[in-house]
Specification:
Elements lengths: L2 H9 L4 H18 L8 H5 L1 H24 L5 H21 L8 H25 L10
Length: 140
Amino acid sequence: MNEQNYTSRLAKYKKAVPALFVIVTILTLVGTLFPSNYNLPSTFWQQDKLGHFIIFLAWTILFGGVLTIKQKKKPKLPYVLLCSALFGIAIEMLQLFIPTGRNAELYDFIADLLGSLAALGILTIVFKKIFPEPSEPESN
């Protein structure tokens, strides 16, 4: 399959994926850096790590999608993971310095990283469908 076919497969997502990426990034920053003195039930805070996992799963998938659309080829997955990890570390570091009542937590970052790793698994499957490996000629 040539590059034009890849481009046509990605064309329908050309606007939606970057827009979703921006929305998820903004929601992530608001949800992690704004004051935490909300009147939410305690059960919400018990699910905090699950929230970190899900948001970084979504963020990493969308980031990989944005790179794919922009480059018109499969991005390097270690680069996607590195950027996601740096985003997670940056959020935790900002929580140390911005006076919002938030605390940087190692377990938050671990949940972020696990969500990103799960996203890499999903991206690997998706990329195999979008960018199939050329079949090897059979040797006799």
